[in-house]
Design a protein that fits this description.
The structure is a single chain. By secondary structure, this protein is α/β, with parallel strands linked by helices. It has one domain: Aldolase class I (TIM Barrel), CATH 3.20.20. It is built from 11 helices and 10 strands. The strands form 2 sheets. The chain has an 8-stranded parallel β-barrel with strand order 3-4-5-6-7-8-9-10, surrounded by 6 helices. The protein has a two-stranded antiparallel ribbon with strand order 1-2. Helix 2 crosses helix 3. The longest helix is centred in the middle third of the chain and has 21 residues. The chain is globular and about 60 Å long. The relative contact order is 0.14. Bound molecules: flavin mononucleotide (FMN). Flavin mononucleotide binds next to strand 4 and helix 10.
Length: 318
């Protein structure tokens, strides 16, 4: 088993273990949120480059929920045409494509937002899932990391709500659970449910609890990134980690979380070289590795990695 070994998720075949993580390409998108020719060109380049799985950048469920002005939208049906052109590229090059579904939320003011507003956003997520499916994507990735809406709700630091959306662990996860339950019929054998979560929400132990819960409620693949950090951790590394762990602390979260669940785990952050990626996959520390900035620098990262692998091991990969 190596970096280039295929992996099946539901009916979909990933050619290898390399993932393009969601990357908002602000400079390629206008304020209206529509897919542009330049954006299509980028996804074509990454698809041609041999990537195993593409997670299309954060698409916003509501016009007032954007993280920046120029982010792609999925908040009404007029976006489906452009998004379906992206999905078509995946089909053309045999690369399964999920699209990330996002709402920026309210930061630490999450406790003061009305219940009705969250009910409305929940409906907007459900509608966005339906649009993603009708556009032809192979699934969705719920954006539950990086201190955005779902991360705010999952966080025991920020979610001090006293209604159905907060309180105990199960109530903090209510939005996620309700969303998944109410869209179950969409997730047949051809439609994958991914979740990008904060592995530190705020501690690794919370991340493990969240991941186990997500597996239990039907998530097909988990992507571990960062959450709302512990404010006492002022340094770059937001968790306690063994000193001899040689990869990034966010990768560590993924590696640790994988030990507690059976569904595939994607790890990410500062994985640059084929050798690093291979080490993580061959030792089964992660099922899949995401290469973000490395792919921006080199959209054909996988093709390049095959050459590097050959130089290092003498083994040829098609
Ligand atoms: C330009 C840029 C845009 C990003 N956009 C998103 C996004 O839309 N959704 C998301 O979950 N993470 C986003 N991220 C985070 C990346 O997915 C990834 O986790 C991060 O870049 C670390 O991986 P890397 O070191 O391989 O780049 C973005 C990062 C960058 C640099």
């Amino acid at each position: 088993m190596n970096l280039f070994t295929p992996l099946n998720i539901k009916n979909k075949i990933l050619k290898n273990r390399v993932v393009l993580p969601p990357l908002v390409r602000f400079s390629m998108v206008g304020k209206d949120g529509y897919v542009t020719e330049e954006l299509l060109e980028w996804y074509r380049d990454v698809s041609k480059g041999g990537t195993g799985l593409i997670i299309v950048e954060a698409s916003c469920v509501a016009e007032d929920g954007k993280l920046r002005d120029n982010q792609i939208g999925i908040w009404n049906d007029s976006f489906v045409e452009g998004l379906s052109k992206v999905a078509q590229i995946g089909k053309q090059y045999d690369v399964p494509m999920l699209i990330q579904i996002h709402h920026a939320g309210f930061k630490d003011a999450i406790a003061t937002v009305s219940t009705e507003k969250l009910d409305k956003i929940l409906e907007q997520f459900i509608d966005a899932f339906k649009r993603a499916k009708s556009a032809g994507f192979d699934g969705v990735e719920i954006h539950g990391a990086h201190t955005y809406l779902l991360s705010q709700l999952n966080s025991r630091l920020w979610n001090k709500r006293e209604d159905k959306y907060g309180g105990t662990f199960e109530k903090r996860m209510y939005f996620t659970k309700e969303l998944i339950e109410r869209t179950k019929q969409l997730f047949d054998a051809d439609f994958i449910l991914g979740y990008r979560m904060g592995g530190n929400e705020p501690e690794l132990e919370d991340g493990i609890e969240i991941a186990k819960y997500l597996e239990k409620i039907g998530v097909d693949i988990i992507h571990v990134s960062s959450g709302v950090p512990n404010p006492e951790k002022k340094q770059e590394v937001k968790i306690d980690m063994p000193e001899d762990f040689k990869f990034d602390w966010v990768v560590y979260l993924g590696v640790e979380i994988k030990k507690h669940i059976n569904i595939p785990v994607i790890g990410v952050r500062n994985i640059k070289t084929e050798e690093q990626a291979s080490e993580l996959v061959e030792n089964r520390m992660l099922d899949l590795v995401a290469i973000g900035r490395g792919m921006i620098a080199r959209p054909n990262w996988v093709e390049h990695a095959k050459k590097e692998y050959f130089k290092r091991t003498g083994k040829l990969v098609k």
